[in-house]
Write a structure and sequence with these properties.
Chain lengths: 190, 212
């Protein structure tokens, strides 16, 4: 079934409204209810969704929580309430992101701006290629290094990789432009 | 350095969206009006390159690694407006497609790293370039990391003062400037060195390969 861009736009708008609402609510019971609603709406994958969300936010949340407990140790009940609201809000926002965003086709959702959509499509294709290539480079360095990679080698590798990506970006920009030009893309836009 | 969702108060991200939205509109209009047909593809690949640069990691003392920001490199190579739009797109994609960063923090990240980071990097590069090119490149990379860190530390530290409950407890990020300024800036002074070294080395690799 082919979805319309309106469906994706409505989903994106709904997500943005939910995010803003979550930042306007400061009562723990309402934030906890929001968490429950998102988890219930997920159905069977709810436990894995919860685990992914906790895992994604744990390092940052743990650092802030432990730090605030240390700072506000003279008034722990008050600190507990602050941390409950903060952590519930972060959990709700992360759950919302993992629950809603994978279902949105961003290129369709941003179809209202042809330039933005065009840039996004080009960028996405380039980013996916670059991500794969970056992983290849990293694995190549690891498998060719019998010992742990040192600082100088890592810097040289980082610099060469960066330079390669920048050169590839320049090359791809001119190649894409020529391909679009040859297909009359720029004439259509006039 | 990205701020995740849930730490920034609506009193901050609301006006930030207003200011960034205006700048995005100006940037897109400049892009549409560009006579150079390669302007849009160049922005797209600059975005992808910025995304790739952020994956580059450098070992730090203590056995940890940090990923470079690449703000200085992108700004020096592609210019302030292209860098601002490209980095904004990176943060948008990271927030909406890869689950990094956040929607409420997007305009803050875009303004701090995309605009102020790029502006300061290009400014320092142009200032120092006539004196010593390598030093100018290094300082561009360092400044492109440290200036956004200062801006983000100030914004994060302002949250408990801007959004409080009736009893005075913070509603969003709970630490003030006494914590955020050293905690965010000091590590980025080191990350900035890695960024600066990387800009210089990448420039040399690019230059050497191009001249052969």
């Amino acid at each position: 079934m082919i979805r319309s861009s309106g469906h994706d736009r409505a989903l994106l708008l709904g997500y943005l409204v939910a995010v803003v609402t979550a930042t306007l609510v400061h009562r723990p019971i309402l934030l906890a209810a929001g968490v429950m609603v998102v988890l219930l709406s997920a159905g069977r994958p709810a436990p894995s969704l919860l685990w992914r969300s906790v895992r994604a936010t744990l390092p940052f949340v743990l650092a802030v929580t432990l730090g605030y407990v240390l700072v506000a140790r003279d008034d722990l009940p008050s600190a507990g309430r602050v941390l409950l609201v903060l952590n519930l809000r972060i959990l709700l926002l992360t759950l919302l992101a993992f629950r809603i965003l994978p279902g949105i086709d961003l290129q369709r959702a941003l179809a209202f701006s042809p330039t933005l959509r065009f840039v996004l499509i080009l960028t996405t294709s380039q980013v996916l290629t670059f991500r794969r290539l970056f992983s290849d480079f990293r694995q190549a360095l690891a498998c060719r290094s019998p010992h742990r990679v040192g600082l100088l080698t890592a810097l040289r590798h980082g610099a060469s990789t960066s330079a390669w990506f920048l050169r590839r970006a320049e090359h791809d920009a001119s190649e894409i432009t020529q391909a679009l030009d040859a297909r009359g893309f720029f004439l259509d836009r006039d | 350095m990205h701020i995740p969702d849930g730490f920034i108060a609506p009193q901050v991200y609301g006006p930030a969206y207003g200011a960034t939205g205006l700048l995005w509109a100006i940037g897109l209009r400049r892009l549409r009006r560009a006579l150079d047909p390669a302007a849009v593809p160049r922005l797209a690949v600059a975005t992808a390159a910025a995304f790739a640069l952020m994956m580059v990691t450098v070992p730090m003392p203590g056995g940890t690694t940090v990923h470079v920001l690449g703000v200085g490199m992108v700004a020096v190579l592609f210019g302030v407006w292209n860098a601002f739009l490209a980095l904004s797109l990176v943060y948008l994609m990271q927030a909406l497609m890869f689950g990094n960063g956040g929607v409420t923090a997007l305009p803050i990240n875009a303004l701090a790293m995309g605009l102020l980071g790029s502006l300061s990097a290009v400014g320092i590069y142009r200032l120092l370039k006539p004196l010593q090119h390598t030093v100018a490149l290094f300082c561009a990379g360092w400044t492109g990391t440290v200036v956004p860190a200062i801006v983000l530390a100030v914004i994060l530290g302002a949250q408990p003062h801007l959004a409080q409950a009736a009893d005075g407890t913070p509603l969003f990020f709970p630490f003030g400037w006494k914590v955020t300024l050293p905690a965010v800036i000091v590590p980025h002074l080191l990350v900035g060195i890695a960024d600066g070294v990387l800009v210089v080395m990448a420039w040399r690799v690019l230059g050497r390969k191009e001249s052969t």
